Amino acid sequence: xSLSRDLRDYKELKGNMMLEGVISEAxxxxxxxxxxxxxxxxxxxxxxxxxxxxxxxREVNNAVRDLRQLNLVLADAQVHQLKGSTSCVGVKRIRxxxxxxxxxxxxxxxxxxxxxxxxxxQEFVFCKNRLLYLKNxxxxxxxxxxxxx
Amino acid sequence: MxxxxxxxxxxVDAMNIERTIIAHxxxxxxxxxxEAINGQDAVNRILSGEKFDLVMIDRSMPVMDGVTATMRLxxxxxxxxxxxxxxxxxxxxxxxxxxADEFFTKPLDPKKLVEAxxxxxxIA
Lengths: 149, 124
Prior knowledge:
The complex is a heterodimer of chains A (about 150) and B (about 120). Chain A is mainly α.
């Protein structure tokens, strides 16, 4: 793999991820505050976002696992936490779903809440894969001595 | 740089990533950072005698939310600056009424934070 091709791919990938709503200007802000003391801060935040989101989704899924004893109050609180953490990296796709969940919750639409939780799990997998691909490509470039665009 | 060596900031948020990002920004200005995971944790630290110059606090947290915590901290006589940082824009008035000095919506804008810290004379 040539470094120049990787750099091109990285730039294109970031652009695509912005259009997809997987990252936003928030991620660019994280890149902007990287320094010598913390050269991969943005990538570390990808890992933290994934870790936090996985923990939240576990709680959400547990809250709705038993259809006879749904705990939508807990699910709503957890989904709201997820909304906050998506803004750190700019995962608009997931943020939109968290807002849709809140609407369904306030309307008392149990079916709507359950449908959106299912979509949240699916969207998270998609976003996680994209974020990790970006991170791994970026790390590969840095390891080869490249400077990320 | 922080105006004085030894300025301490308390970062209050239930989410690890949020606390880490805020702490990263503040450490650039030589703040010593202490983290709390909810409003009650923050209140307990003040009750135990810990001193802070700045508190950055989220709204939605388990056990005790940010607005309630802000109110409690002011009732306890806390004079440090309190900056609310939350994704809940509709709670701006509630935070100011509770005693917050500034309100930002997430994601944190480093430029706005710097402006606020300068306005509060916490950094040069």
